Amino acid sequence: MSVSRRFAVAPMMDWTDRHCRFFHRQMTRRALLYTEMVVADAAIHGHRERLLGFSAVEHALALQLGGSDPVKLGEAARIGVDFGYREINLNVGCPSDRVQSGTFGACLMKTPELVATCVAAMKSAVDISVTVKCRIGVDDQDPEVALDTLAHGVIDAGADALWVHARKAWLQGLSPKENRDIPPLDYNRVYRLKAGFQNHFIGINGGIETLDEALGHLDRVDGVMLGRAAYHNPGLLIDADQRLFGDVREPIDIATLIDTMCDYADRHIASGGRLSHVTRHMIGLFQGMPGARRWRQILSTEATRADADSGVIRKAFAEVGENAAEAA
């Protein structure tokens, strides 16, 4: 079954690690999943298996890179291909202090020519898709000019897709968290971009909370990317393949999902990991259902013990099991 950019789970620092992606893949076969941003220097010089390793179950999977040196980004992209990633994405949207100090991420919105050069270097280095994720602008930039300029540059350089977080980023005065909420969303700006690039993939990201909203956007753009909504309420992924792709299959059995995650957690613990590395991504699974509060409490407290194993997950699931089965 093919995986499509029509629907994606956004790259999110400290969240979309390999355990999160394994969990999400149990609920959607079709969504494109993204890694956390990996800085090009780290991919080249760091512990590659720890930074880039993943389970084959996670496919199809895209690697997001951060950086502004075309040569290093090309080398990091080649490393990503060697690991088996299906797509390489360049981060041109993150406003964190870390990326500002390295002059990449959202800072690159100010230097669209450099972004185009980086894309061209990555395209020449690999034979898989190279994509870009950006904002509509930064600081005092005019989004009409800034976004069009960036889009023309990266598409002319060979970018296979452009994902747009439909907010500006303010590099001074707002924290990364505030940059996800305070700058107003401007979906119409992304729609106008798509109208000007009819033959190129334009995807939208930012503040999208439900599959109904996603379907509305898909009338205007090529793809929808969910971030925090998919993370904090991962249960919505259970219906994504049917709602967004028209897939017909047996409903996901929640008890089987829990068994799979218990087996996965025990394998991770046996290899030296901690249960909480896995369960921290599962806390929102039963959002809005009876028993969800106890599920969250048990995973948040008991899973952090040094000797915790999958029995904690089963204990927590016992608080919601019948309700979950009925909902599924």
Keywords:
alpha/beta, globular, TIM Barrel, single chain, 2 domains, 328 residues
Radius of gyration: 20 Å
Total helical segments: 17
What number of domains?
A: 2
In the CATH hierarchy, the architecture of the largest domain is Alpha-Beta Barrel
CATH superfamily of the largest domain: Aldolase class I
Please trace the helix and strand order, writing H or E for each element: EHEHHEHEHHEHEHHEHEHHHHHHH
CATH topology of the largest domain: TIM Barrel
Q: Helicity, in percent?
A: 40-55%
* Secondary structural class: alpha/beta
Describe the structure.
With 328 residues, the chain is α/β, with parallel strands linked by helices. It has two domains: 4-245, Aldolase class I (TIM Barrel); 254-327, Four Helix Bundle (Hemerythrin (Met), subunit A) (Up-down Bundle). Helices cover 44% and strands 17% of the residues. The chain has 17 helices and eight strands. The chain has an eight-stranded parallel barrel, surrounded by six helices. Helix 10 links the parallel strand 7 (201-205) and strand 8 (223-226). The longest helix is centred in the C-terminal third of the chain and has 17 residues, at 254-270. It is an enzyme of class 1 (oxidoreductase).
Structure at a glance:
Keywords: Flavoprotein, FMN, NADP, Nucleotide-binding, Oxidoreductase, RNA-binding, tRNA processing, tRNA-binding. The chain is α/β, with parallel strands linked by helices and 328 residues long.
